[in-house]
Amino acid sequence: MRTITRLAALAGILLSAAPVGADTAVPGSRLSIVLGDREPAGADHVSDLALAALQTAVDGAPGDRTARFALVRALMRAHKLDAALTAAKAWRAVDAYNLVVVRLIGDIQSELGQRDLARRAYSAVVELLPKDASAHRALASVLKQAGDLQGAYDRLIVAAAMTKDDRRLAFELADVANRLGKADEARERFAAIVADPTTPEAVRYPSAQRLAQIDHAAARAARAAGEADRAKELEAGLAALKLAGGTENDIKVYLTWDTDRSDVDLWVTSPAGEKVFYSHKNGKDGEALYDDVTTGYGPESYTAPHAQAGDYLVQVNYYGAGRSNFSEARGEVVVILDEGKATESRHVLPYRLYDTGQTVTVARVHVDRHAVALGGSK
Asked: What is the residue-wise DSSP string for 334-358?
């Protein structure tokens, strides 16, 4: 359904473009992360003249959904939220069952701090289409970016029951289960994805990576508890996965997004200035990008087994949108530092891109030079 495809492009809560800028490090690690932007720099620069022109377009064609959408989004980007909410409600008054405007109202209310009203608006999506898996998935994206992982999990459970053969949806559900601490369930779900011969390689490989992370942690815990046989069993399973990136890496990055028929790319640039991305998937120091997903949702993943001293720049580029989508894409980047080690840390970074061609820098990973000289974590 084209409306839901567009709806997916609008899933999530409106995020501030201001950089977070926090420097996060784990004691004993040579790696730290400086959080970057959630939206492209300058995304909120909309002139009053441009807003007036958009309002004139709506006045001249009240039934034009494209004009309505452009006006509301421009007001949101200009941080004129009260005016955006007024414009969105005026749109819904003449287009009551348009799910896109329902979602926009929820976005605006969320940004205004009206959380209960926002949740009610978002929930209207699945109330209108209770048997549409895409609607539940879109709501899950909203809840996930709002930090309500349990709510997202509940929506994904419903969606997965409706579309049992959707491996990307299965991956998303397993990932949320893992983030909720449901390690056994997540392991079972990832293992099922890996074992299914119909799973696309673009989904199978990152699923194998996630499965390996869970089993590697379990093997470490088993050895620490003196359960040598259990540890060996888990390690044998890890070897059978035959992961090119292994289970211990300095940097691991995952990218997902919330639109189908779209192409969002992960770029990681090393301290030497070498960019690993879709047309240059392997770096000189062993860095690698696994899979360039061009048909929507992701995941894409990047591994740096031996990070070099300096800064790694983590960016997301909106390469292309399908004809059925609006011009937005949003999702998450997960950065794992010291993967598989005692100092492992994970950072979930939401982002939003408005138009194709835009790029946002979501993080900078710093590798301490002094620690490298001493041997670091290797």
From this structure: EEEEEETSTT-EEEEEEEEE-STT-
Query: How far apart, in whole angstroms, are the C-alpha atoms of residue 285 and residue 193?
Result: 30
Residue 182 is part of which domain span?
A: 165-247
Identity of residue 82: D
Rounded CA-CA distance 46/81 in Å is 13
CB atoms within 10 A of CB 47: 10
Q: For residue 315, give the 3-state DSSP assignment.
A: strand
Q: Return d(Cα 171, Cα 5) in angstroms, integer.
A: 19
Neighbours of 273 (CB within 10 A): 8
Is 186 part of a structural domain of the chain?
A: yes
Task: Check if the beta carbon of residue 169 is closer than 8 Å to that of residue 134.
Answer: no
- For residues 59 and 56, give the distance between their C-alpha atoms in angstroms, rounded to a whole number: 5
Residue 309 lies in a domain: no
Give the whole-number percent of the chain exceeding pLDDT 70: 84
How many distinct structural domains can be found in the chain? 1
Query: How many Å apart are CA 73 and CA 65, to the nearest integer?
Result: 12
The confidence score (pLDDT) of residue 245 equals 67
pTM value is 0.72
Q: How far is CA 252 from CA 249, 300, 314, 348, in A?
A: 7, 11, 11, 12
Q: Identify whether the C-beta of residue 110 lies closer than 8 Å to the C-beta of residue 13.
A: yes
Q: Would you say residue 171 lies in a domain?
A: yes
The residue behind tokens 């997965």 is: 160
In angstroms, the CA 35 to CA 314 distance is: 10
Higher pLDDT among residues 247 and 337, named by residue: 337
Residue 209 lies in a domain: yes
Residue 244 to residue 47: CA distance in whole angstroms: 49
Average pLDDT over residues 62-75: 93
